[in-house]
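Q: Sequence in, structure out?
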Amino acid sequence: MDDDELIAAVADGDDSALRELFWRHAPWLAARLRSVLPAADVEDVVQETFLAVWQGARRYRPAGAAGAAGGWLWGIARRQAALLLRRRGPAAVSLPALLAAGGARADDPAEVAVARADLDQAVAALGPADGPEREVWQLLYLEDRPVAEVAKLTGIPPGTVKSRAHRVRRLLSAALRGPAPGDQPAEGGAR
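A: Exactly. Output:
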C-alpha cells in the first residue's frame, strides 16, 4: 500500500494502517522535530501527530504528487509542535531559537519553531557543512567577522569572500522563499 491508501484505510478505522504509517514516517518526523524542540518533547509531539492523523484522516485529500502524504504529515507535526510551545509560553524558547527565528515574532514560540525549521532547511541548501559557502556563512553571518578577516582565515581573496557571500544570500533567499509556482529546474543541473 502506498501512503495515500494507508491514510484512506486509517480514515476507515484500520489501526494496522495507522501503525504502518507510523513506522514509515515517525523516524523522519522525529528527526525534523529535533531541530525545533527539546529532545524530551519530540516523542510526545510525534505521538500527538499520529493521534491527529487518526482523528483527521477523513479530511486528507491526495494530491497525486509523490510526497504529498509526507507534506501533510509534516504540516500536522508542525502544528502539534506549535501547540506544545504555545501552551508552555515564551519561557520555553531558548535564546538561540529566538536568534535563529530572524524576522519571526519573538513572543510567539510557535513562530520561532517554524522559522527555525525553515532556516535549518535553508542552511542545508548551502551544501555540505565543510563546504565553502557554509564556511563563509558561518564566519560572516554567525560569527560577524569582517570580510578581510574571513579572507585571511580562509586563505582566499576578499573579492572571493564577497562573491561567496553574495551566493550564500541568494541561496538562502531562494530556499526560504521556496519554488515559485511553475518553476522547473534548469536543464543540465545546478550551476
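The radius of gyration is 20 Å.
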